[in-house]
């Protein structure tokens, strides 16, 4: 079996490559290295089952070329994921998320690739009134990024009517762990290393999210893909506990060996860190759990491990 992973040198993508190789797949990792890095795949050098292709999925011809090789399943993780950037550039999510996804789906039809696995996001739910939020919830979009991911899901579902394609969409909560080079933990570590006396916190510190460790997220993807056999499959992936931004700061400060009371926090104000940030996200994961999946690492330990790795890789 051959799996193609877009964003394969990225944070989650490289961990998925590891897991697919463990599962016995031959893997083609595609990445333009704008966000990903070959350092994330360095430990796999010499593994003949892995092939890396540097390519940009905005290039339709390149997508057609790397899809033409007896691929059995595409795991599509490459994306523009900066909500704040898209508030300024209103086309970036269309150009880097939606249109490239259509390129991939068209190439899959042409080359008869039957399975499409998509990395979506909890951002598609907007500010959901129902919490925990199930997959069936009908959302109102609050960010262009979330809207682009929701659109990608919809296009993938529609492509199942055009040919022999089945679709799995996974809506992630906040994924943390080794190889993460963005996000609140990364930001806090860098800010505190630069100035251990002061920490700028975007928003009011009360924003509450679920922080899932990357290995648990990847295991959720594998479980849902292998065990759910519908034509269209949608799953939430999260842990069953939330942490506020202030609680994340507490853990990071402790891991850096600092004293909480000696770090002055400066809040930028408001209930959200930026326009489009959903201040409270709690997902219902009962659907994925019904297939036997369970996260193994709690939120606090996930945050601690991520902070330690970040400190080692500044």
UniProtKB/TrEMBL annotation:
So which domain of life are we looking at? Archaea
Write down the Pfam families for this protein, in alphabetical order: Epimerase
Q: Which InterPro entries does this chain map to?
A: Epimerase_deHydtase, NAD(P)-bd_dom_sf
Q: Specify the NAD-dependent epimerase/dehydratase domain's residue ranges.
A: 3-238
Give the protein family. Answer: Belongs to the NAD(P)-dependent epimerase/dehydratase family.
Q: What is this protein called?
A: NAD-dependent epimerase/dehydratase domain-containing protein
What's the source species' lineage? Archaea, Candidatus Marsarchaeota, Candidatus Marsarchaeota group 2
């Amino acid at each position: 079996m051959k799996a193609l992973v877009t964003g394969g040198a990225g944070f989650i993508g490289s961990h998925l490559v590891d897991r697919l190789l463990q599962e016995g797949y031959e893997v083609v990792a595609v990445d333009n290295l704008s966000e990903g890095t070959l350092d994330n795949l360095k430990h796999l050098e010499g593994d003949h089952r892995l092939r890396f292709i540097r390519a940009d999925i905005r290039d339709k011809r390149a997508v057609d070329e790397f899809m033409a090789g007896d691929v059995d399943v595409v795991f599509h993780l490459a994306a523009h994921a900066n909500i704040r950037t898209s508030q300024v550039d209103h086309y970036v999510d269309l150009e880097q998320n939606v249109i490239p996804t259509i390129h991939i789906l068209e190439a899959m039809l042409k080359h008869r690739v039957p399975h499409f696995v998509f990395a979506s996001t909890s951002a598609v739910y907007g500010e959901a009134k129902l919490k925990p939020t199930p997959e069936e919830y009908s959302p109102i979009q609050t960010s262009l990024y979330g809207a682009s991911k929701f659109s990608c899901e919809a296009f993938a579902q529609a492509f199942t009517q055009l040919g022999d394609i089945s679709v799995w969409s996974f809506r992630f909560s906040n994924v943390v762990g080794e190889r993460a080079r963005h996000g609140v933990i990364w930001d806090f570590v860098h800010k505190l290393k630069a100035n251990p006396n002061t920490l700028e916190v975007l928003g009011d510190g009360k924003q509450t999210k679920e922080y899932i460790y990357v290995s648990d997220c990847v295991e959720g993807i594998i479980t849902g893909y292998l065990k759910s056999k519908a034509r269209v499959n949608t799953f939430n992936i999260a842990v069953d506990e939330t942490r506020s931004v202030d609680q994340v700061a507490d853990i990071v400060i402790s891991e850096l060996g600092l004293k909480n009371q000696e770090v002055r926090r400066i809040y930028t104000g408001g209930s959200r860190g930026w326009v489009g940030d959903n201040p409270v996200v709690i997902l219902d994961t009962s659907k994925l759990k019904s297939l036997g999946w369970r996260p193994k690492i709690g939120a606090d330990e996930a945050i601690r491990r991520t902070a330690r790795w970040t400190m080692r890789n500044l």
